[in-house]
Amino acid sequence: MNFKGFFRQLGEFDLEEPRRKILELTEEDWNSEAWRQKSYPVHQQTQTISLIFDKDFRHDNPTVHPRFEHFKDAFTPFLQSTADYFNQMPVAQENREACGEGYFVRLIIVKLQDEGIVHPHGDGGFSLMHSHRIHVPMFVEGEVLFKVGAECRTLQAGTIWEINNKCLHAVKNVSGKPRIHVIADWVIPGERCCCGTRLRPGGECSPEACKATDYQNQACDCYQHQA
Ligand SMILES: [Zn+2]
Ligand SMILES: [Zn+2]
C-alpha cells in the first residue's frame, strides 16, 4: 500500500519468545519452501517459512498453514500491536460496519543470507497494492541496508514497521550474519488505494478497476497532488 513517506514505525515488542521459536527451525525447515526464491529472481538469496500464505496472492480467505500453531502464542504480542495500530485508523473505523474487521492476509518468516541482496523492485498486483506491508525484524546483527524510495535504514530487531511497497525497495545485508524478518500484510477491508481514490472517486477498488495502476512498477505520484 502506498502512503505518504517510505517507512513508518508502528511499535515495539519483546524479542525473547519469538526469537526462541524461530531458533527451533531446522535447516530442513528453512529449505522446505524453495519455490519463492526460484519463482522470484529478486528473492533468490532468501529462505521463507510460510505461516499464512497463498501463492495466488489472494486478498481474502487466506490459508493458515499448520506451522502457524508453533508460532502463534509467541507472535501474538507483535501481531496484536499491529492489528491495534490499523484498527484505530479512521479508514478502518469508517469501513468496519460495511466491510468487516481487518485481518492478516499473509504472514511469512524470511531469512536473507549474509551478503544477500534483494534487488530493487516495486511490488504489484491487487492484494499487495491494497494491504499494508509490515516488517518485523527478529535477528539483525549489524548493518542491513534497507532502501525504500529515497530513504535507507537498518531496521532494528524488536521494532515494527510498515514500508511503502509501492515505491522501489531493495535490501543489502552487509552485517556478516543472516538477517531474519517476519513480514506480514494487513488488510483494512474496503480501504482504497491512492490511485483509485484519486482517479476513480466514488467507485470501489477491485482487481479489474485497479489493474492499470496495480501493476505499474514504480511509485505513482498521487501524494504530489496533495496540498
Ligand atoms: Zn485500488
Ligand atoms: Zn496512486
Key descriptive features of the protein:
alpha+beta, 28% strand, Jelly Rolls, 227 residues, six-stranded antiparallel β-sheet, 27% helix
Would you kindly provide a brief summary of this structure?
With 227 residues, the chain is of the alpha+beta class. It contains 8 helices and 10 strands. It has a single domain, classed as B-lactam Antibiotic, Isopenicillin N Synthase, Chain (Jelly Rolls), CATH 2.60.120.
Q: Could you characterize what this model shows?
A:
This protein is an alpha+beta fold. It is 27% helix and 28% strand. The protein has helices spanning 16-23, 27-30, 35-39, 68-87, 90-99, 126-129, 194-199, 211-214, and strands at 7-12, 46-52, 103-112, 117-121, 132-139, 144-148, 151-153, 159-163, 169-173, 179-187. The strands form two sheets. It has a six-stranded antiparallel sheet, with helices on one face. Strands 4-9-6-7 form a four-stranded antiparallel sheet, with no helix packed on it. Helix 1 (16-23) packs antiparallel against helix 4. The chain is globular and about 50 Å long. The structure holds zinc ion (2 copies). One zinc ion binds at residues 130, 192-193, 196, 205, 210.
Terminal-residue CA separation: 20 Å
What is the 3D shape? Answer: globular
Strand order of the largest sheet: 1-8-5-10-3-2
The CATH architecture term is Sandwich
Number of domains: 1
Question: Could you name the CATH topology?
Answer: Jelly Rolls
Associated small molecules: zinc ion
SS field, number of helical segments: 8
Largest sheet: 6 strands, antiparallel
Mean pLDDT across the residues is 94
Low-confidence stretches: none
Top-tier CATH class: Mainly Beta
Instruction: Name the CATH superfamily classification.
Output: B-lactam Antibiotic, Isopenicillin N Synthase, Chain
Query: How many extended strands?
Result: 10
Helix/strand class: alpha+beta
**Run of helices and strands:** EHHHEHHEEHEEEEEEHH
Q: State the helical fraction.
A: 25-40%
Computed CA radius of gyration, to the nearest angstrom: 17 Å
Strand content: 25-35%
